[in-house]
Structures are given as C-alpha cells and as structure tokens.
Design a protein that fits this description.
Layout lengths: L12 H6 L3 E5 L2 E6 L3 H10 L2 E4 L6 E4 L3 H8 L11 E8 L5 E11 L2 E5 L5 H9 L8 E4 L4 E7 L3 H6 L14 E6 L2 E6 L8 E7 L3 H10 L3 E3 L1 H10 L34 H10 L3 E8 L10 E4 L2 E12 L4 E9 L8 E6 L2 E8 L11
Parallel strand pairs: 3-13
Antiparallel strand pairs: 1-2, 3-9, 4-7, 4-8, 5-6, 6-7, 9-12, 10-11, 11-12, 14-17, 14-19, 15-16, 15-18, 16-17, 18-19
Length: 366
C-alpha cells in the first residue's frame, strides 16, 4: 500500500527501502518498523551493534542570554545547573503536573541548548513552549528537517564509531556530548540511547546522514527498525510517551520523581507537582513478568480475581530474557515487588508478578 502523501520522510528513506525495510506510518512519518525481523534485530543490539534512524524525533535549538531561564520555566530539571556538554533526561509537564512529553536537553554552550522531544509530541511541545516565552531574550529554532539523528546502540557500538572519528570516544561519559567529525562529517556525538545498551546517538546534517549510516554499516552495525527499539526499551524499563505516560499521568505515578525538581520558583508545573508529591499518589507504574503463556498487550486489563485494578500500558515477549514482560498502573497496594495479580488475555486470566525495573541491564544480567 502506498504511503499517504502527507507522511514525512527522513533523509535515510531511500536507504531503508534499498535494505528491504518494512515502512509504516509513525507519528506522521514513514519509518522502518523492521528489516530482518524484530526479535533478530533486538538480539543484534544486545550482542553487537544496531543502527536506528530516529530522525523523526524533534530537534529544537534554544539560544541566547535568556535560554537557560526559559528552559528553567518549562523543563522538570535544573537547567542553569547543567554543565556544558552534558545532557539530562527530563519531563515537560503541564500546569496540572501531567506529562506533555519526556525529552533530553543538552547544554552545548553558555547560551546554547538542544531539546529532543518525541516525534508525536513536537508540535505539542512547541505550543507549550510558546505559552512561556515572553519576557526573555532567546531564540528557538526547529532544526528537525535540516538535520538527521542516528542511534548506534550495542556493546560494540563505541568501538565501531571510534574507528570513524578523531574524538576519543572512551572519554565520553554517559549523558555527555561532543562536537566532532564522524566519517568525515560534522556531528554532535552523544553517549545516550533508548535501548539499555551502551552506544551513541549522532546528529548530523540531513544530507550527510547516508554517509554516516553507510560507514557504520560497513563496520558491522545491523540496521534496526522501530519494532526492535520498542522491545529493547521495554526490556530496559524505559517508558514510552503515549503508552506509559501522558497528560493524565504525573511523574510520581510514573516512578520518574528523580527527574523532577519541583522546588523552583520559576517552574511552571512546580506548584502542582509539589502538591502531588506532598499528598502522595494512589497508583504506581509497575513492571511485571507473566507466569503463563501469552503476551501482555497495551490495553489489556489487570485483574485481582473478578476486580479490574489497572491496565497494561506496554508489553512484549522479551527475546533477551525469553519471557513475557509488561508494565502497567495499579493501586499502590499492589505495587510492591512480589505482588500478584492476573492479566486478562482476551478472557483468559494469566498470573503475573511485580518485579524490579529494569527487566534487563547489562550489569544485572551479566
């Protein structure tokens, strides 16, 4: 079936098609969901290195003397305290404490920042930002179309990219970034990712992205689609906006309170988040494993006998752990590790048990 004309394409689209990528609509973009297969690609990332085109994610540059002060208003973390060439995961919350998006902010200079919102939420983030941009001297530029973003993930990823750049990749700490060249192309190189593995993410000009992709492929990186990325992030206990959180969820329910600094005078969501923190919450996001056959899917009911107590937000078979795993919101009385309930698998109740997150980490499962 031909893609609707309204779908956007990244500068790597032709490469995806030439490699046999199965292209699907995703957040307004035509993106590869898989190549060889979701499970095979997930295993490739866990054992070697994989390549993901994540150019559909937003890239917003905020510069000027008022940039830090503006971001202090709209992001959940202490932006003025962020050191140069460091990045921080954070949330963008509305005035009621609901999560508009989760993103990473990079500080690339005294007055220069880069914010990476999710593809489906870039417009909502820009709309929210516009409510708080008065009275401060800064410029916001949406450079999503002009740039491309490649995630290079896996235990061999750093060694592969090290052979393509003059920069000492071993010196790059987690959530740190550097401006350098990769495969002869000017790039922002960051030690970040969404798979639970070591690796890097690279931001380059849109027209240079095919050069970098091919160079990493020649080093042995396996092309991977969004399907395996979703499995990998779930194994790593990483939340997906639109599934595991949205504006009906606050950071304390989602278990993301360590990424929130609500006691800041200028923070737009501070008053609501302080109140939620002080009052406590009635539900919590938990990770669970299945003790029975089946795969928990988004929207499946979580049951305690005949009583519905929650809903699965994410679920999959884990190829790394060879078991079915999932996440969902339950009342706090069911949130302790070891708590039991059932997942309604289309009328069939399957036992589940709350476990610690992440399900997988290289250190935990070594």
């Amino acid at each position: 079936m031909a893609a609707p004309d309204s779908l956007r394409r990244t500068s790597l689209f032709d490469i995806h098609v030439s490699l046999g990528g199965r292209m699907v609509p995703f957040a307004g973009w035509e993106m590869p969901v898989q190549y060889e297969g979701i499970l095979a690609e997930a295993r490739a990332v866990r054992s070697g290195a994989g390549l993901f085109d994540v150019s559909h994610m937003g890239r917003l540059e905020i510069t000027g003397p008022g940039a830090a002060g503006f971001l202090e208003r709209v992001l959940s973390v202490d932006v003025p305290g962020l050191r140069q060439w460091r990045a921080r995961y954070n949330l963008i919350c509305d005035e009621g404490g609901g999560i508009i998006d989760d993103c990473i902010v990079y500080r690339l200079g005294d007055e220069r920042f880069l914010v990476i919102p999710n593809a489906a939420n870039t417009d909502a983030v820009l709309e929210w930002f516009s409510k708080w941009d008065s009275g401060l001297d800064f410029e916001l530029q949406n450079v999503t179309e002009a740039t491309a973003m490649i995630a290079h993930q896996g235990p061999q990823a750093s060694d592969m990219v090290a052979g393509l750049t003059p920069y000492d990749v071993t010196s790059l700490k987690m959530f740190a970034a550097a401006e350098t060249e990769v495969a002869g192309v000017k790039a922002l190189l960051a030690r970040t990712g969404y798979t639970g593995e070591d690796g890097v993410e690279l931001i380059v000009s849109a027209d240079a992205a095919p050069t970098v992709w091919r160079a990493l492929s020649e080093k042995g990186a396996v092309p991977c689609g969004l399907g395996s990325r979703d499995v990998l992030r779930l194994e790593a206990g990483l939340l997906l906006h639109g599934n595991d959180m949205d504006t009906s969820v606050n950071p304390y329910e989602a278990g993301l309170e360590k990424f929130v600094a609500p006691d800041r005078d200028r923070y737009a969501a501070g008053e609501s988040l302080r109140r939620i923190r002080d009052q406590g919450v009635g539900r919590k996001l938990v990770g669970f494993i299945l003790h029975g056959k089946g795969v928990p899917r988004h929207g499946y009911d979580i049951m305690d006998g005949p009583n519905r107590i929650g809903e699965v937000t994410s679920g999959s078979h884990s190829p790394t752990l060879d078991m079915s795993i999932g996440m969902g919101y339950v009342p706090t009385g069911y949130a302790a590790v070891g708590s039991r309930f059932q997942i309604d698998m289309r009328g069939r109740a399957v036992d589940a048990e709350v476990t610690t997150l992440p399900f997988y980490s290289r250190r935990k499962n070594a």
